[in-house]
Design brief:
Strand order of the largest sheet: 8-5-4-3-2-1-12-9
Strand content: 15-25%
Oligomer: single chain
Distance between the termini: 8 Å
Number of strands: 12
Structural class: alpha/beta
CATH class: Alpha Beta
Number of helices: 11
Length: about 270
């Protein structure tokens, strides 16, 4: 089985902000099959749908802020349904909503409600993890508790392989754990270890300015410590439909566009 490959637009957000349509065309020229959105850059759903069609890219999914989805669920999700997205994902939880807080119970409850609306619009809700979901609650990881509580038809996984590994777990094993519930998997590579300020690399400011003891950086797929042949084998076993390249910040003296280009070139060498 070969996989269609999408890229998370957040990886090239500055380029997209300057020229969204031109960036989509360049992504297609690199060899990508689809895109996953993280905002629409002030474009209407109708315009974005046309830009995807003109560029030959499938608008596979979208990361939509959790609070946006809870504030006006039907309107927000309807926009992405109009574009043609098959999936929509809760991408990130701010500190007051994370495991260990009272807000996490609301996340679990609201995920089920958002999932129902998504299903009614012909989409599937996903949850995109970081490492903080690997905090244990009553002996179970919060991430597993979320998936145990919310039915699979209302919430599927979008496992981020970088953050699974950062948490100390095996990405391939986790993908297989959710076989049949992992339609979209994030491929993200990195080097270094867990560090105090690593969330600044995804745009989250930190009050902790203590020097890092282990330098952490995101890297193009195939340029870091991840075993992607093993991960892709697990995706085949799990019947994954799409793999998505994501790199929150560039490194190795590469621009964001050069980084995603290197990622797709690497994936082609391992016969995805």
């Amino acid at each position: 089985m070969s996989f269609p490959v999408a890229v998370q637009i957040y990886s090239v957000r500055d380029d997209a902000a300057k020229d969204f349509e031109g960036t989509l065309k360049k992504i297609k020229e690199m060899g990508y099959d689809g895109v996953e959105f993280a905002g629409l850059y002030d474009c209407s759903p109708e315009k974005v749908k046309k830009m995807c069609k003109d560029s030959g890219l499938v608008p596979i999914s979208a990361h939509v802020p959790y609070y946006d989805m809870t504030a006006d669920t039907n309107k927000v999700l309807s926009d992405y349904a109009e574009i043609g997205c098959k999936y929509v994902a809760i991408p990130y939880l701010t500190p007051e909503c994370r495991p260990g807080t009272e807000g996490f119970a609301d996340v679990v409850k609201n995920a089920a409600e958002i999932g129902k609306v998504a299903k009614g619009l012909g989409m599937q809700l996903l949850y995109h993890n970081h490492d903080f979901e690997f905090e244990k609650i009553d002996g179970k990881y919060a991430l597993d508790l979320l998936y145990e509580t919310v039915p699979a038809d209302l919430l599927c996984t979008e496992l981020d392989t970088c953050w699974v590994k950062v948490s100390g777990e095996d990405p391939a094993a986790y993908i297989r754990k959710y076989a049949g519930r992992s339609p979209v998997v994030h491929l993200k590579d990195f080097a270094g270890g867990k560090s105090d300020n690593m969330y600044e690399l995804i745009g989250i400011e930190s009050d902790n300015k203590k020097a890092d003891t282990q330098k952490f950086e995101f890297r193009p797929v195939g340029s870091g410590c991840q075993d992607f042949p093993g991960i892709l084998d697990a995706c085949r076993d799990a019947e994954t439909s799409w793999i998505v390249v994501e790199q929150d910040q560039p490194s190795m003296n590469l621009t964001p566009m050069e980084s995603i280009d290197r990622s797709i070139k690497y994936l082609k060498t391992i016969n995805i």
